[in-house]
Design brief:
CATH class of the largest domain: Mainly Alpha
Number of helices: 13
Shape: elongated
Bound molecules: iron/sulfur cluster
Strand content: under 5%
CATH superfamily of the largest domain: Hypothetical protein, domain 2
Oligomer: single chain
Order of helices and strands: HHHHHHHHHHHHH
Largest sheet: none
Helix content: 40-55%
Number of domains: 2
CATH topology of the largest domain: Endonuclease III, domain 1
């Protein structure tokens, strides 16, 4: 029933989410730097990701520059980023693949993007939507949690959640969907202590209805943290 309710009211729900979420301005719009920033952002605070990406950009400028960077130099620049020892070789490798196999241009399709080591569907979808303005829904922990709580999906598998969201959310809302939900997830539907008291979509929410009915939160599946799967741009962890 909740899923049907959400589906029937998805545009209204999304407009309330937009109302309660500040607009997100990205540091970069160039596809290569969107990709690198997104890889860096997993389990890392916005300001740390932004600072590291900016320093990398200032020093290396493009795929060609980063592809030939010594790993120890890159590691030093990104040392405050989570899992920096994994991400340093990973971003250098991504730069090399893009330089050598795609003539320095990030490929604008999910098949090629996900062939790059460390780039999963989530990261690829961020690049497609944010950099290329191709409709795609990136499912990070915020999008997954909100989808689970609303009752859109019971799955803890991001690929399943993406599929279910894709069926429910009209395609014209896909670009910008992830950043809005991320902001909503940080400010309102927080991982711990969701602000149901101020939430404008509580009347559609499975989690909220469960608390009202039974006095306790429902059992929501937890997504397993991956150390190196890459996330969405700055802070979309
Ligand atoms: S009512 Fe609570 S759990 Fe449901 S979407 Fe709003 S903040 Fe999240």
């Amino acid at each position: 029933m909740t899923k049907a309710l959400v589906k029937a009211n998805i545009r209204t729900i999304y407009s309330h989410i937009v109302d309660q979420s500040p607009e997100h301005h990205f540091e970069f719009s160039d596809p290569f730097w969107v990709l690198i920033t997104t890889i860096l952002s997993h389990r890392t605070k916005d300001e740390v990701t932004d600072a590291a990406a900016r320093k990398l950009f200032n020093k290396y400028r493009n795929a060609e520059g980063l592809a030939s960077a010594p790993e120890k130099d890159v590691l030093e620049i990104i040392r405050r980023v989570g899992f920096s020892n994994v991400k340093a070789p990973r971003i250098i490798n991504a730069a090399r693949v893009i330089l050598n196999e795609y003539a320095g241009k990030v490929p604008p399709n999910i098949e090629d993007l996900t062939r790059i080591k460390g780039v999963g569907r989530k990261t690829a979808n961020v690049v497609l939507a944010d950099a290329f303005r191709i409709p795609a829904i990136a499912v990070d922990t915020h999008v997954q949690r909100i989808s689970n709580r609303l009752g859109i999906s019971r799955s803890k598998d991001p690929a399943v959640v993406e599929r279910e969201l894709s069926k429910m959310v009209p395609k014209d809302l896909w670009i910008g969907f992830n950043p809005r939900l991320v902001e909503f997830g940080k400010k309102v539907c927080r991982p711990i202590g969701p602000r149901c008291d101020i939430c404008q979509i509580s009347e559609y929410c499975y989690y909220y209805a469960h608390i009202q009915r039974k006095g306790s939160s429902p059992n929501i599946p937890k997504r397993k943290a991956k150390a190196t799967s890459g996330s969405t741009q700055a802070g979309r962890q």
